[in-house]
Amino acid sequence: MEFVIEQGKQLHQDCSTLLLPALSIGNVGQLAVDLLVSSTRAERIGYLDDPYILPCVGNNAYGPISCGDLALPLEAYDSPANALTLVQQRSPVVQGMMIEFAKNLADFAVASGKKHIVVLSGLDFGRWQRIDMSSGLQTYYLSSTNSDGTDEYCEQLGWKRLQEYNPAQRSWKYLSALAEGNPLEENRLPFEDELEEEDYYPSLPFAALFSCFKAKGLKVTCLLCYCSEGDNIPDAFHLAEAACKLLRLSPENFHGDEGSKWLIPFSWKTVYGPPPDMSIF
């Protein structure tokens, strides 16, 4: 993976936290990163070129008008005021190469001096085992702070550790071995057989990112919420708010739209495509 800095820009050494999405159902992680990039008024400092991510190109997602400033698949933004670097991913990883991609991102994080990695992702609502909507959307987490995935501060915030994380389970062990670069034969998954229910979560992108960042000795926290495909903007606000709580950021200082704390990305105005041509009616 090559990091290409834009002309006249630089990585800020005081941005010790890296926040990025894991591609998932509803693109909730990507939408939340969009919201944070826009609201913190983070500056694009460059892009990451990786052989394992599919190429794509689009228009600038944050400008007030369609100015023709190109957006690339993997871009880096710095918000020095919040000591935060944000990476936005806009295209999927080549099939079967998620671990290699995650290793490359972990190498970038180490090389750029990051200390804490925050991964945002949605989870399939259809697989939620113990549904509790009594207090609205729930935040789940997974942390490298302790071996069982728990973190005291996350618990204080009222979040629940992802129950499906079990470092002793075969898929999580296999994933950890791959991330460390020493897969053991006895840990090899029987891909010829049907995978069990407990093998599902370790197969998701957030799990690969978690394992690879952890293998590099970095502190990593995954923030997760269950959702369904559709209008996932409320889920994005939920994850963005959770990220701010974790990093002790105050959205009230973001100076968003019309007195709001959040600055809605310009691209969200056409998230479901442009409005119809009214002349057809």
From TrEMBL:
UniProt-listed GO biological process terms: proteasome assembly
Alphabetically ordered keywords of this record: Chaperone
Gene3D superfamilies given in the database record: PAC-like subunit
GO CC, alphabetical: cytosol; nucleus
Entry superkingdom: Eukaryota
InterPro entries found in the cross-reference section: Proteasome_assmbl_chaperone_2 (IPR019151), Proteasome_assmbl_chp_2_euk (IPR016562), PSMG2_sf (IPR038389)
Quaternary structure annotation from Swiss-Prot or TrEMBL: Forms a heterodimer with PSMG1.
Stated family: Belongs to the PSMG2 family.
Protein's recorded name: Proteasome assembly chaperone 2
